[in-house]
Sequence to fold (912 residues):
Amino acid sequence: MSSLAFLKPGRIGMLFLHAVSWLAVTYMVVPLAVIVAASFNASNRLAFPPQGFSLKWYSQFLSDPTYVQSILNSTQLAVSATAIALVLGTAAALAIARGNFRGAGALTTLMMSPLVLPNIVIGAALLQFASMFGFARSFSSLLAGHVILVLPYVMRLVLASFAGFNRSLEEASQDLGAGPFTTFFRITLPQIKPGIVSGGLFAFVVSWVNVELSIFNSSPQFALLPVKILNYVEYTVDPLIAAVSASTIYVAIVIVVLIDAFIGIDKFANARAET
Amino acid sequence: MTDPILSARGLTRRYGGVAALDNVDIDIAQGEFLALLGPSGCGKTTLLRCIGGFVQPTSGEVLIEGKPVQGVPAHKRPVNTVFQNYALFPHMTVAQNVAYGPQRAGVAAAEVTTRVREALKMVGLPDHGERYPTQLSGGQQQRVALARAIINRPKVLLLDEPLGALDLKLRKHMQIELKRLQEQLGITFVFVTHDQEEALVMADRIAVMNAGKIEQIGTGEEIYRSPASLFVADFIGDANLIDVTVAGTGEVTMARGGDFLGRLPSASTGSFRMLARPEQLSFLGPDSAPPTLRFAAIITRSIFVGDALRVYAELVDGTEVAIKLVDERARTGLATGQQVSIGWYGEDARLFPVQR
Amino acid sequence: MNLSRFNIFCLIVIPVACLFAFCVAPLGVAAASSFFTDQGDFSLQTYWKILADEEYRSTLWATLVISVVVTAIAAPFGFLIAYYNVMVVKSKLARRLIYMAVILPLFTSNIVRAFGFMVLLGRNGIVNNTLMWLGAVETPVRFLYSDVAVVIGLSYIFVPFMVLSIASALQGIDRSLLQASSDLGGGPWTTFRRVVLPLSLPGVLAGSIIVFTLSVSAFVTPSVMLGGRGKVMSMIIYEQYVSFMNFPFGAALAITLMFTAFVVVALYSYVFERKLAWSRA
Fold:
């Protein structure tokens, strides 16, 4: 971008732009930073400035079986939904990217449609539908909803991966005698791996943090952590729930760093924005 | 040159350890059509962009009408650029694109409309004002880019390989068009190209560049007939380069093997690489006039290239030379493997000294 | 790669079946249920009931207004960050850091972010404590439990969507267009106004539609930010489904919400359509 140097406005203008922009960027993480700070507060109330430093809230919730169970539940749901979505999404993306059939556009729209529908509407409709068939408020109805929720994200990232990949590699493979199955596993899959990995990471996160879809079908028997946090803060706020929330922030940080390591966060940002 | 409209003095641009431009000096006259010619990476585009103000030189200066323009930003320089990919604003119509420059200069709206109409007429697109760039063909886009630049009556128009994306026939047509336009407008054109034929067709003078330096500036004919260096000799036109030795007596012999070739009394002594253009060589027959230099050779192959026959022959030291035969009658009796005599007629040999 | 029709069928049959079974069918059933009375007759009475009720109308209106305001705030905010990151920042590391800062909130749950605002804006929160410490106010200001709090919360949550959408559009701008503008006499401000801004509009439009649609159906942030003192449409829908088990009514409310949102988005797109004619040409 050094070729844009000739466009620089006056020095004061530039300084102002830098300052305001970095303020805006900082604002994006302020609410999260605040939670993390509050979680180490030694006192029992959420007060600022924080009084004392303590890890007791973390140890408290980590030794609380209901919290631990809800973490496991959320993880189990997210992993299952992601696994299913990865298989289905990659298969569909493969068909769309390489299939050359007439309904490809319509199929893509269909598969992406959950993105444009409000989560609560999907959740509510699933509750209604599932109660007709007797599996409402169960792991199955939750799983069904979550698969639908994350499938578009997987597809979008895998499709983007296909787009950036030279088709003639596959043609060469088939020219040399490999059938479609072999070609897919030995040639295509390694090339689209970054898309699949980042799609999987993204799907996992989207499923894990989801509230709007989960509240319709979760139950006391299968509690999910984000729903639990929601129920909690409706009554009270304290450093304990701050510690619980902060833990989810730490996991999110790890995942962002992982995605950056796998495909680069800037490529991820640009692939994600395309519908 | 008195009062050049554009000059560069000691212009250097380094990127890390590499000099894209290395101490370049050039003077360009008002109304001249100058081509910057050279292979990729020779610095011609960098030079153009320094003039335009998009690249700042590491040292040296650019002068427009005698005034240094160091520190003057691109949008304030009295030069305009036709970009390689045209850079037409996709969100504006053709007319809006062309009007952009005059509007920036504060020209009144009514006047702008008139000038836009004239400019579009001049490039042959009078009815395309309301179209969008994406609706035009490559050639049409190129002409819009041209109109958009010349409407501002710049002191110098910079053209960065503008014909590169066009197919051959359209290119040739546009070369003539551009030349005609330049003569009509009287604007100084600085034209970057890697195509020597293009440069020869269009330019008044050609600056041949290599590795950041200007190897030679001159008219096409000067450069072709009297190349200043081996690089220029090899770059322009087809070149046969033959290693010879010239003795004090004017005797010319093959550098390897010592075969006698002839006499060049006016040449200096030493080891040289001699330039012989394919059209300067001919096959000697019983009726041929005695040549200045005579080479023994064996024909290796001949290739039909439409308007001529290109015959390749190997000299005694293994050098392969190319001879261009245009005359239909001269093409008979030349079979691969045949032993021939090749004659060079001339008085002025282009000899480039080499170390041996 | 050549995929036979059979291959294609095998690949898409299960994904499509899932979508139909768990998305299309449930939505169809829900939608259908809103058009029938308890007795099983086709009727629009549920919809009349919604539209006739002052409370539902005003909640719908409030939801739409909030969403418009949120979009209007998120757009310039997101534009600033996107522009800065794509056009101004030169260091690759800085660019990645900024993207990470923007994407990190997306990977945290809505509830966590809303909770963060509770901590920020609560009576004992940072903002109030700072204001009192500075002496600007004497008693804590009530930021939370108002529509304003919802707007603040939602605009924060949706800025990343705007950033990504606009950054994508800005990224796609051919750099030679900026040079051309400069070449023709356009200074930095003119180049921004006449080249960068118009060419970023498709990204702004797409981002606005995403943010508006998400805003209109947001549940968590309004619930938390309003704290029981007010409702948005999504909360009413939830109530009908989970508290009252009145599925047909909840479905009708959902459809009403989606329909009005769709009308707003369609109008908005139509108005923009003319300005963006060039991108379709």
